[in-house]
Amino acid sequence: MDRFSCKGSLQVKVSDNIDDNTLIQIKLNHLKPHIPYCDISLDNDIKTIIHEMAHLQAGKIWEHILKTCPEKAKNITEKQIHFAWMVKNKENWRLDDDQVKSALRLLRKLEEEGHDVEIIEVPTESGRHSIAFALRDVLKNYGGEVCELTMDSTWKNNALGYELYAFVGEADGMALPLAFMFTLITDDSVTEGGKERLVGACIRHLRVLCPNILLFLSDKDLLEINACQKEAPEISHQLCSWHAVRYIEQRLSENHPPRPYDPQKANHTFSFIDLTWAPGVALFEETTKSNPSQKVTVIYSEIK
């Protein structure tokens, strides 16, 4: 990179307001002239193309510019096109400076316009902000075929730290996203069981549109398990395969003795288990007859 003794200065000003349209301001001064920088700003023709094609994906607009304006495309990048496209479309999805209010207004707008969104009415919980919505077309087309409902959550999913709950169904061998819920604790007035009631409201909404659910799947989250049992006690609930395997692996890796084994309790749960099989497992080393110097480990089970 060429350098010049231009006695210049670079000033960078960063705004602490996340809602500010100009988060970073950069100012470059030169006291002595040198070879000018290449202007990579978007000209009016490129801006016009972006505005006219703003309803398409940014990648499609970039492909169009490469084909129709190859010379101008040499001095700009795809990231510039994406940023200009994002700024242009911000007016369509940023309906309020408050992110929560903006999201709710956007969901209501999409619902009123007949898009694939319907708001799930969840209870107002003290000390919490919550937003829940379902995918209308998926539920309309596949709701009657969904037999399994899986739920899981992620923590601090976005910049504001909202927790995201996803509700996924299974139909025709496909995993189908059915609904989502965002929730966040806002102050100390939060009440016990609030999140469980919110999850229950989503399950209640989905049960109406998915009347043939036979099984609930989740991780080992007691609030999810309790919500399922309260809303649909007749439907079986179990850990999903991945969480079950992970829990067993974690349990086996712990250096703790197992709980006492009760053969009568085991037989009551699974009748094929023999009541006389009550192992007291012990490990010891035994020498082989053919080679006394060789030792083998033997597992000994004692019938009690």
From TrEMBL:
<dbReference type="Pfam" id="PF10551">
    <property type="entry name" value="MULE"/>
</dbReference>
<protein>
    <recommendedName>
        <fullName>MULE transposase domain-containing protein</fullName>
    </recommendedName>
</protein>
<dbReference type="InterPro" id="IPR018289">
    <property type="entry name" value="MULE_transposase_dom"/>
</dbReference>
<feature type="domain" description="MULE transposase">
    <location>
        <begin position="149"/>
        <end position="245"/>
    </location>
</feature>
